[in-house]
Write a structure and sequence with these properties.
This protein has 551 residues and is mainly α. It has helices spanning 3-26, 56-66, 73-123, 136-168, 175-198, 211-233, 242-262, 269-304, 311-324, 340-352, 354-368, 374-377, 379-401, 404-410, 414-444, 451-484, 490-495, 498-526, and strands at 533-534, 541-542. The longest helix is centred in the N-terminal third of the chain and has 51 residues, at 73-123. The structure holds protoporphyrin IX containing FE (2 copies). Pfam families: COX1 (PF00115).
Length: 551
């Protein structure tokens, strides 16, 4: 079957799927009852805020903001049973979640350092050029691969391993598969990054690591997805909450994408470029995006103690994403030597993505409506809500960036890099920070030792990211206009970006500093500085503060 038929078939399937979905909604095939959105709450839990990273004072202020609701004796009984089960569930995931998250923090620091060095090189070309592996081409690629296959999947897998038993109401089954998978994955990544540093790559963006190394990662990724299957089989939850849909689909899509994308000697020429960007955008849209959305749909309602505003809208978001995202990759090839109908198809699908994106945005907005003041008191919520908002910004921006008229200006410029960071940093990474702040106290049965560092981390990365994204978007746009102006020499389009490239290094420096603060806090918690948590979620107390490493 040729590429034309495959893409056409995919498009017809998407549209048919969407109609089937609308029809099934009209026939009440989906759970209409608001009970589905309450699946993540126990009896009597709605109305009780829950932010494990908040101090007692912040928690009190958060509860005051949301109002006080008394729990009946019967509900309290049911709640304490469920809380005890959650403690069990948390225990079953503790080691695997901790290992994966520790790896993610390590790769975050490696990646940020490589990103900062690459950034400085763009305005100080003499900086660190002594060795080949330090040059821009390799350093930039090391940065991309360390975020794309180190920080991002390790954080997403770690958070997913913790969420699964909570959502399926049963302990995690098969944690050792995920640990083995994680080890293989990281070994593969170390091998892949070493090859990149030595200049050995497969020569395609996002698919640089040699395919021989990818074998380790394919096996590792497949093993890491095993607990999903085992735990799903043994679930005690009556309804699969929308986060399970997103995570389940993402953990199913990712190994397939990675395997197809890395098959050697199958795709050549134009087909190879097409497949490259089919992989490139699908890994963003069908892996990182659903993993982060699953987290927002779980953590946001849990923190404010209120179910999401519209459960059906969350399903529209899920199916819209599943139907439309698969074909958007062609928008990376606008103007390229590929069939124009294929690019047009991807532009149409990129615009269609506005439907699921708005479904999510409206849902988040209405869930938070009237409660925005809670952001003052909950450090975790700040990350989650800001990340959710950045999903809307990056995606709507992306839909318009796909249009030929806009892409002619932005393609080959720093504007694309700014968009990439609004998506993978402003949205995905910021959501993951929030999720990790929520998860770690439960995993470790320990408090974050220095709560003020959470705020410091937040403001450093938010200010740094704002400088990075706003400056580079302006610089990239001016660069694109200059490149299109026949009256201007090419070098003018380079010089115009200089102040913005320098501001990116300042913004990126602040982000990196924020990451160091986060990593320090993570290590301090792992070394058991601070105080112990006593009792299950919601009703926990703290033991006396300790400032020594536990023996
Ligand atoms: C409806 C949603 C989205 C659409 C239609 C979209 C569209 C686009 C377009 C048109 C480009 C530029 C292609 C080029 O000129 O080379 C791009 C690049 C990119 N987008 Fe998006 N985007 C969307 C959402 C996102 C999200 C949510 C993320 C992150 C999770 C993201 C991450 C990226 C990255 C990393 C790149 C740069 C890829 C590269 O060149 O290496 N996008 N996107
Ligand atoms: C978790 C944090 C980060 C994530 C997820 C991330 C993600 C990405 C992605 C997806 C790209 C490819 C963009 C494209 O090709 O269009 C990229 C490139 C880049 N990033 Fe990051 N990044 C992060 C942190 C940083 C930091 C802290 C800096 C420091 C300034 C930085 C600087 C760069 C640079 C210089 C490039 C290459 C741009 C180019 O080729 O012109 N990144 N990053």
């Amino acid at each position: 079957m040729n590429t034309v038929s495959i893409l056409l078939l995919a498009f017809i399937l998407s549209v048919t799927g969407l109609f089937v979905f609308i029809w099934s909604l009209r026939r009440n095939f989906f759970d209409h009852s608001p009970a589905a959105s309450r699946e993540i709450f126990s009896k009597g839990e709605i109305g009780q805020v829950d932010d494990p990273s908040a101090t007692p004072e912040q928690r009190q202020a958060l509860q005051d903001e949301m109002g006080h609701k008394t729990i009946s004796a019967e509900d309290r009984q049911a709640l304490s049973v469920e809380l005890a089960e959650r403690v069990e569930a948390d225990r079953s995931t503790a080691s695997v979640t901790f290992i994966l998250l520790a790896c993610s923090v390590f790769w975050l620091i490696v990646a940020s350092t490589a990103g900062l060095i690459s950034s400085i090189k763009l305005h100080e070309p003499e900086f660190l050029t002594q060795h080949a592996w330090m040059t821009f081409g390799r350093m930039r690629t090391l940065h991309l691969n360390a975020v794309a296959y180190g920080w991002a999947p390790m954080a997403a897998f770690g958070v997913a391993m913790w969420m699964l038993p909570r959502l399926l109401k049963t302990p995690l089954i098969g944690a050792r598969y995920a640990i083995t998978g994680g080890v293989l994955w990281n070994l593969g990544l170390v091998g892949g990054l070493t090859c990149i540093a030595m200049g050995i790559t497969d020569g395609m963006e996002w698919l640089e690591m040699p395919w021989q190394v990818d074998i380790l990662m394919v096996i590792g990724g497949a093993l890491a997805a095993m607990p999903l299957i085992f735990t799903l089989q043994n679930r005690r939850a009556h309804h699969l909450y929308v986060s399970v849909w997103y995570m389940g689909a993402a953990l199913f899509w990712f190994p397939i994408l990675f395997l197809v994308g890395n098959l050697p000697a199958v795709h050549v020429g134009v087909e190879q470029a097409t497949m490259n960007w089919w992989f490139g955008h699908n890994v963003l849209g069908l892996f990182y995006t659903p993993m982060a959305l699953a987290s927002v749909y779980y953590f946001l309602p849990k923190i404010i103690g209120q179910p999401i505003s519209s459960y059906n809208l969350s399903l529209v978001g899920f199916w819209g994403l599943a139907f439309f995202y698969g074909q958007v990759g062609g928008h990376h090839l606008v103007g390229g030597p590929v069939p124009q109908w294929m690019v047009t198809l991807s532009i149409v699908q990129s615009m269609m993505m506005i439907i699921p994106v708005l479904a999510f945005s409206i849902n988040q907005h209405y869930t938070m409506k009237g409660h925005f003041r809670t952001l003052i008191h909950s450090p975790t919520l700040r990350f989650i809500v800001l990340g959710g908002m950045m999903y809307t910004v990056s995606s709507i921006q992306g839909s318009f960036e796909a249009l030929r008229s806009i892409n002619t200006i932005t393609h080959f410029t720093h504007f694309t890099v700014a968009h990439a960071h609004i998506g993978l940093y402003g949205f995905f990474t910021i959501v993951m920070f929030g999720a990790i702040y929520y998860v770690m106290p439960r995993v470790m049965s320990w408090e974050w030792p220095y709560p003020k560092l959470i705020s410091l981390h937040f403001w450093l990365v938010v200010i740094g990211f704002a400088i990075y994204a706003i400056g580079l978007s302006i610089g990239g746009w001016l660069q694109g206009l200059a490149m299109l102006d026949p009256a201007k020499a090419f070098m003018e389009s380079v010089f115009v970006t200089m102040p913005y490239l320098k501001s990116r290094s300042i913004g990126g420096g602040l982000m990196t500093l924020g990451h160091l603060v986060f990593a320090f806090h993570f290590v301090a918690m792992a070394l058991r500085y601070g105080s112990r948590r006593i009792g299950p979620a919601l009703f926990h107390q703290r033991s006396a503060t300790r400032n020594v490493v536990e023996a």
